[in-house]
Amino acid sequence: MKPGKMPKAVRLTAYGGIDQLHIVDVAMPEPKRNEVVVRVVSSGTNPGEIAIREGHLKEMFPMDFPFGQGTDFAGRISSVGSGVTTFAIGDEVLGWSEQRSAQAEYVVSEASHLVAKPPSLDWFRAGSLFVVATTAVAAVRAVSAKAGDVVAISGAAGGVGSLAVQLARRAGARVIGMASDDNAAFLASVGVEHVAYGDGLERRLRAVAPEGIDAFIDLFGGGYVDLAVKLGVSTERIDTIIDFAAAEKHGVKTDGSAQAASPATLADVANLIAWGEIVMPLTAIYPFSLLHDAYAELARRKTRGKIVLAFEESVKVRIGATSM
Ligand SMILES: NC(=O)c1ccc[n+]([C@@H]2O[C@H](COP(=O)([O-])OP(=O)(O)OC[C@H]3O[C@@H](n4cnc5c(N)ncnc54)[C@H](OP(=O)(O)O)[C@@H]3O)[C@@H](O)[C@H]2O)c1
Q1: Which CATH architecture fits 132-258?
Q2: Which atom of ligand 1 is nearest to the CA of 157?
């Protein structure tokens, strides 16, 4: 950063639409004990941020304005606080911000919320991994997916879904992924049977799984939990990460990111992607300056994999449907 220039960060000053997202100059963060400051290279966008910004989760995530945004990030360590022995200046890392301040040129983080970036994991997947990786791991674990099972997953091609379907496959299950026809080829490429959502879904699911569905992971909400119960899936083997009203009604599980949030989980999934064991599609990479466009695209809920923000001018950025 040039002398005299202040780093930029997202700040929200009120609940509301995309116009409440402001990119402002902020003071350079200073690491306290056991903390580091990371020069961010990339940061993920997550639909939950839209719900928080619009004020739908005021009770769960209260905000004292002005507030930052963003959980996932990857970058290079630029300063280190006292007590940190695991990382040094210049190390390439990925991690998460519990203060929701990852969408910034510099983020302060607990050293314990970071892992080393595998050299063969690109910056964009690294910087958008934490929320979806931990959520996918928690959801697949919650339903105890195993060899011989038929597991149905809604939102199968989204950020969480594209990883969850592959983790359930790796557990040995036969996986049915509910998605639009646009994602049929992607799902087939990772060994997942595509079933289109919409009218007649129950009939189509019964037709592809005449012996029944053993476990159901709902990553989209809006009736999938009711459907799973109707299909006879046992409530201990249904997990929703979004439909908390239906979960309360039927007594199904709600395991999500919090149930698997750890550096070990993050490192495991990062390595699976780095080694090519699973794939992580990206729909688009936006420069930080086009933050508003990134959130407008995310709000359409047609993302395959992730939409990522890029922070370094030197990073080559592809805008649009990259579908890598
Ligand atoms: N509890 C937690 O810890 C936790 C953590 C992360 C996320 N979440 C929540 O979980 C949800 C999923 O997150 P995400 O990041 O995976 O979202 P996302 O990437 O935005 O999901 C996009 C996907 O939704 C699919 N979709 C759109 N309409 C659908 C429908 N009617 N039925 C089934 N799928 C449909 C799209 O598939 P097509 O393009 O094929 O239509 C697209 O691939 C969000 O609501 C998020 O807020 C909760």
Answers
A1: 3-Layer(aba) Sandwich (3.40)
A2: 43
